[in-house]
Amino acid sequence: MVTPRLRHPVRRIGDRDIDFSRRLAVMAIVNRTPDSFYDRGATFALEAAVASGRAAFEAGADVVDVGGVKFAPGPPVPVAEEIDRVVPVVRALAPFGPVSVDTFQPEVARAAIDAGAAVINDTTGVHDPRIADVVADSDATLVVAHSLAAPRTQLPLPHYDDVVAEVRDFLEHRVAVAREHGVPAERIIVDPGHDLNKNTRHSLELTRRLGEFADIGLPMLVALSNKDFIGEALGRDRDQRLHGSLAAAVFCATQGARMVRVHNVRETVDALRMVEAILGWREPAYLLHNMRSEGNE
Asked: How much is the average pLDDT of 204-213?
């Protein structure tokens, strides 16, 4: 078990205080895109996206992450269109819990925060430092993820001499950029970016050596859910990766990850709450087994 040395373990995210020294948080995914990797547009309609987000909160999600543009390469989505996709969902879900918006556009981040978003999840690692300016001028949390290519472009045959060392150096540098632009350390979370400009061997090594990020001092999010490295490791199609995703989530939790971004909320919540119970961070929901005297049985 790796215990991260967090400088600011207790975080205020939206209306919730989360103590990452004793809590494994779940970030649910809602894709308001017509071509998303996992659900293939199932939550593109506004009503479907809102219903999915509300169901995620009811299933135990700590944060719901709304995305209006997928990470994979493709034609640019106009900023105004991305705002139209995410802002109505943020407004609808914010009364039920903390909402995150997955974007690399400063204008989208501003509109989302104004609508009630508590987290900006930048999978391009503050590629545009103006996004840090926007977050700094708010109470929102910034997720800084590792990826190398320009937004929505391909990085063919990615190469790393030491993927863990290079990802760590990138994250420390981009966190420094965010702090220079006014985002305090107590409002930053890092993400090593599984599969983002990485092949399966890279993502497996990141997972295996995740404990080497433990002394970075910031809570770590891992976005593993149903990703290609799980499918390729197991030989499973996109809709058959739940068990591999749960195994990866639990392993990462034991190696210092404190938030997991997932599609399958209820199953992941149960897995991580069980880890918390084993570690003594959470009391059992009830006690019945072998808790009665013989005369009462």
From this structure: 98
Q: What's the pTM?
A: 0.96
Tell me the catalytic residues. Answer: 227, 261
**Residue 296 confidence (pLDDT):** 54
- The amino acid that residue 38 corresponds to is Y
In the predicted structure, residue 297 carries a pLDDT above the cut 60: no
- Give the integer Cα–Cα distance in Å for 252 and 206: 10
Q: Where are the beta strands (DSSP E) in the chain?
A: 10-13, 16-19, 25-31, 63-67, 99-102, 119-122, 141-145, 188-191, 221-223, 259-262
The secondary structure of 179-224 as a DSSP string is HHTT--GGGEEEE--TTTT--HHHHHHHHHTGGGGGGG-S-BEEE-
The burial class, CB within 10 Å (0-12 / 13-18 / 19+), for 21 is: middle
Q: With 90 as the cut, is the pLDDT of residue 38 above it?
A: no
Q: What is the mean pLDDT of residues 238-253?
A: 97
Give me the architecture of the 10-296 domain, per CATH: Alpha-Beta Barrel (3.20)
Backbone angles phi, psi at 8, to 5 degrees: -135, 80
Q: How far apart (Å, rounded) are the C-alpha atoms in residues 268 and 15?
A: 22
